[in-house]
Amino acid sequence: MQLYSLFKVLLLLPIPALCVQTVLKEDDEDPPGVVRIKLFRSGHRHLGRRNLRPSLLQVSSSARARGKPVPSDLYGVLRIGVPAQAFTVAFDTGTGNILIPSKKCASMACMGHRAFDDETSATCKPIAFLNNINASLPEDGTRDTVTVHVGTGHAEGIFTMDRVCIGVESDLCAETAFIEATDMTNEPFNLVTYDGLLGIGLPDASLKKEFNFMGNLADKKALRNDRFAIWLAKPGDKGQDSEMMLGGFDMKKLGSEVVWTPVRNLNGGSGYWEVKIHDVAVNNMKMGTCSVKNGCRGAFDTGTSVIAGPSTIINAALLELNVDSDCANYDSLPTLGFAIDHYILNLDKDDYVKRTDDSCIHQLMALDLPPPKGPIILLGDPFLRRYYTIYDRDSLQLGLSLAIHNDESGEAEDVAKVAHKLMVHAS
Prior knowledge:
It contains seven helices and 30 strands. By secondary structure, it is mostly beta strands. The strands form five sheets. The protein has a six-stranded mixed beta barrel with strand order 5-6-12-7-11-10.
């Protein structure tokens, strides 16, 4: 038996291409090989005819290293086995593995969530050894195990292979290996509303290629194109759910041209959807906080509910932004931007500040991840709500467009005006 170790960290918080484009026009229905998956926020109640557990806390979930924040309360549905067992899972671009509670787990944290029952699945295959996935289970039941560290807690588990399907009703399925948790600590797992995690990171973020669900779909040629896109709803988008589109992207969500930038493959491959950030800017003035030659490392992370990054960068940005906690200067707050490719992609004050009746709370967090995982800037929910993100696995490019939204009153935003303000050509 061999023990493997993975690291995750959970932070409780008050998430022109060279390749052929597959887009959906306004009057198109989704073509074959293109599937929309609804993403829900805590408080939604939908899982076919079953209810989702109401929110306990907003959480962030990513699988990279101790100290990294992870998702917000954004999750979808995963079905495993035959007959299918349904689970709610946080969709996380920061990892490439699936983690699901096991029926073998007797801890209180497992009992508070749906658990996978391998005995009721006709297609379940236990994995004995990670370095030989096809080996038969020894008579004495010896199996490799894994410990997944999550914040101040952890999950221990075994490896299992089964049929995995994404969404409530879609037939988008692939045989995939996953981590079946046999023990989970109360903190943080009793604090999250969803059952587990679905990693949608690149293959290097997975234990082995068999654990990478998106890669397994690609091997089956189940999608029209090997890409997915994510649109996160804002408060004014009433009646519209956040969504992930697999196999293409939706023209109706694009508020500007698509800016394509290459995915970096540093340090042997982190598995992150990582790009080069040339600099950070406040009011379109670059701060000089990134290396002139190499820039800063930046990752688009659905598993992070804030903008997180090295303390030197975040603290410098906060000093320039100067957000008053009592909202006294809210109306005059500047834009916060990230120079990517030939643009400064800005966030407005309502993107990076959470405003209540009597306070303003910025959505930035200092996070000093040590090498090789860091230092890195994690562009979480505040950025992903403002920009429609397209993750192209074939060309290893990431596409960015201003996302179309309504304002907080429910009226459609003036897209041209917003794009003119927020998407600025960098000098």
